[in-house]
Amino acid sequence: MAVAEVRITLKKGVADPEGRNTLKALELLGFKGVRDVRTLKVFEIEVEGRKKDAEKKVEEMCRKLLANPVIHNYSISVR
Amino acid sequence: MKISDARVCVLRIEGTNCEEESFQCFRRLGAKPEKVHLKQLTGTDVTSDEKRSLPDYHILVIPGGFSAGDYVRAGAILAARLKSRLSQDLAEFVREGKPVLGICNGFQVLVETGLLPATSGVMAAVPEAVLGTNDSARFECRPTLLKKVNRGLCVFTSIISDDRISLIPSAHAEGKLMFPLDREKGMLRELDDNDQIVFKYVDPRGRLAGYPWCPNGSTGNIAGLCNRDGNVFGLMPHPERVFFRFTHPDWPRSPDGAGDGRPVFESVLRYISKKL
Lengths: 79, 276
Known about the structure:
Helix content of chain A: 25-40%
Strand content of chain B: 15-25%
Largest sheet of chain A: 3 strands, antiparallel
Number of strands of chain B: 11
Number of helices of chain A: 2
Strand content of chain A: 25-35%
Shape of chain B: globular
CATH topology of chain B: Rossmann fold
Structural class of chain B: alpha/beta
CATH class of chain A: Alpha Beta
Largest sheet of chain B: 9 strands, mixed
Order of helices and strands of chain B: EHEHEHEHEEEEHEEEH
CATH class of chain B: Alpha Beta
Shape of chain A: elongated
Order of helices and strands of chain A: EHEHE
Number of domains of chain A: 1
Distance between the termini of chain B: 6 Å
CATH architecture of chain B: 3-Layer(aba) Sandwich
Distance between the termini of chain A: 9 Å
Helix content of chain B: 10-25%
CATH superfamily of chain B: Class I glutamine amidotransferase (GATase) domain
CATH superfamily of chain A: Phosphoribosylformylglycinamidine synthase subunit PurS
Number of domains of chain B: 1
Oligomer: heterodimer
Strand order of the largest sheet of chain A: 2-1-3
């Protein structure tokens, strides 16, 4: 069995309202020196079979469901 | 065909919650709507009596709500399920000129399936746009003003007069229409050239305006889009919630008569009665 970690991040230049709001809240709480906050989504997917096949399969999952190519990048690491 | 023969499929799955209002709009206008669960169309876990077939209907409505809990992205899971099981039926439905309406969550589903904006072909293989998190990062629930900018292509707005401002309420957290950043200008031009832009968020004087008139920061203030043939239409605001004047926020001033959402349903039924 292989476990794939999929990270879905927003593409550069795409607004991240949740990150921006969090940054603002952190500043209001008095945290200094916070440069930026970006939100991302992580999926942990357990797949039967070999690592190599798992990566291919998860790649297809990203294309078909997990990411929208208009605003998302994704990265996959299998262990 | 006669409006009384027009069969309307109001699609539901777990998490859709505007199917009743959408159903009632078509019922009140004399059509034959039916609330149909996705499993009835795919034939899974249902008896033979419950089975339904998409080609038997004349209009498909994907109502608002939170299909599949808005997990992954709003509309993504219902879109994936439609694409995996009903892709051909859906494409054929659209190709035949039958109208498809997506309201709020339904609009998100149409964009995720690639049925909108579909600048070339019927259904794009990968989404060409996205309805992302509102600029405010909050769920925005408020009356919004929409100006009809469509020049006549969209079959859901044909009886709405040009430049008319309609009050149609919005209620969503993910309604900011975005295109790939490097192609945004080109896409906007193409959509305008093809007459695919239907409604824009405006202020009371009809000018494009920022928050809160535009609740989400949508590109070009776009609230609703149609496909190249005008028979697939998606919008974030909820026309089914203002079928009657008395559900407008200022209803005590003029409680009687039609609400601003009603012409959307009348337009499509008129189209059906002439074309199908």
